[in-house]
Design a protein that fits this description.
By secondary structure, this protein is α/β, with parallel strands linked by helices. The protein has helices at 30-35, 42-59, 76-86, 102-105, 109-121, 145-161, 173-183, 202-210, 228-240, 270-277, 287-298, 303-319; strands at 3-6, 9-12, 19-23, 63-66, 89-91, 93-95, 133-137, 165-168, 191-193, 214-217, 247-249. It has a single domain (3-319), classed as Metal-dependent hydrolases (TIM Barrel, Alpha-Beta Barrel). A six-stranded parallel beta sheet has the order 6-7-8-9-10-11. α5 crosses α6 (145-161) and α9 (228-240) crosses α11.
Length: 320
């Protein structure tokens, strides 16, 4: 048994329940939102998001890990409000998404690490809400010097705080993320290497898994990158190879994302948004029940497997 920081306080790992390990409340350009408050109507968005979280709660989701760092428009007060009103536990993150942004490139790496450590030990955005995980990302098939710099910063934050790491990886960069982490003394068992389900290269994913990290099959529902049929086939093959207990299943879903034209936010009203997109829309937090689970059952997987991915593995990860 252990505990983890949630946006409403310390959360006992026994109370994590069914957990989605890689989600977002929303992603928005933080500078645009600050400059133009009507970029996203906060109160209307909260009402909508609470409805989506309640829908997930009613289907069985108890906890979401929100991996939205400051440069993706994280609003910690909004995340807390949605958590409280919906009854869904939310674990927030410190860290960063973009490694090439100028604001941190010319600062001492120790100073940047100190900012993230502050969010873990004191609180985020001037609150007493502490981060429960560290987020980092690489955006190409192989990491570059700016990626390496940030991964070393993230490693220091991990060493100082003990918080686990959840990554965004593209292509084959996840294995290289592990190389940097390992060289910095990070326990690879305390890392989720994210978005590995975007690949159908099971041999490569197995290489990552052999090193002890958790496997993020966490973009289910994003069929434009990899269709559901391929994603579940990869999951099943990894289980057959003995890695069932290292797999986390999630969506990388959000209630709002800048530029997602299919959501029809710009140029329409919120009433239109509700009616046209979210009664039957696949891209939401309940996709795991409506699409993933039926597809897994067809492959012969059991309720015990499903509970492993969504309940026992997240709990084990946070208790390490």
């Amino acid at each position: 048994m252990g505990s983890i920081n949630s946006v409403t306080g310390i959360l006992d790992t026994e109370k994590l329940g069914m957990t989605l390990m890689h989600e977002h409340l929303g992603t928005v350009d933080a500078n645009a939102w600050k400059a133009f408050p009507d970029w996203l109507n906060r109160s209307q968005f909260i009402d909508y998001a609470v409805g989506q979280y309640k829908k997930a709660k009613n289907r069985g989701i108890d906890t979401m890990v929100d991996v939205t760092p400051l440069d993706l428009g994280r609003d910690i007060g909004m995340i807390k409000e949605v958590s409280e009103k919906s009854g869904v536990n939310v674990i927030a993150c410190t860290g960063i998404y973009g490694n090439d942004y100028g604001w941190h490139l010319y600062k001492d790496p120790d100073y940047i690490a100190g900012l993230f450590i502050r969010e873990a030990e004191q609180g985020i955005e001037g609150t007493n809400i502490k981060a429960g995980v560290i987020k980092c990302a690489t955006h190409k098939d192989h990491i570059d010097k700016n990626d390496e710099r940030m991964l070393r910063i993230i490693s220091r934050v991990h060493r100082e705080t003990g918080l686990p790491i959840i990554t965004h990886s593209i292509g084959h960069s996840g294995y290289e993320q592990q190389d940097i982490f390992e060289s910095e003394g990070v326990d690879l068992r305390k890392c989720v290497i994210g978005h590995l389900g975007d690949l159908d290269d099971v041999d490569y994913i197995e290489k990552v898994a052999r090193r002890g990290s958790y496997i993020g099959l966490d973009r289910f529902s994003i069929d434009t990158i990899q269709p559901l049929a391929v994603r579940v086939k990869v999951l099943k093959e990894l289980c057959d190879r003995g890695y069932r207990d290292q797999i986390v299943v999630s969506h990388d879903c959000m209630c709002f994302m800048d530029g997602r034209d299919s959501l029809n936010i710009f140029g329409g009203t919120w009433d239109d948004f509700y009616k046209e997109n979210h009664d039957d829309m696949e891209y939401q937090y309940t996709y795991v029940f409506d699409y993933i689970w039926p597809a897994l059952r067809k492959l012969g997987m059991t309720q015990d497997d499903f509970d492993q991915f969504l309940i026992r593995t997240p709990k084990t990860f946070f208790e390490l």
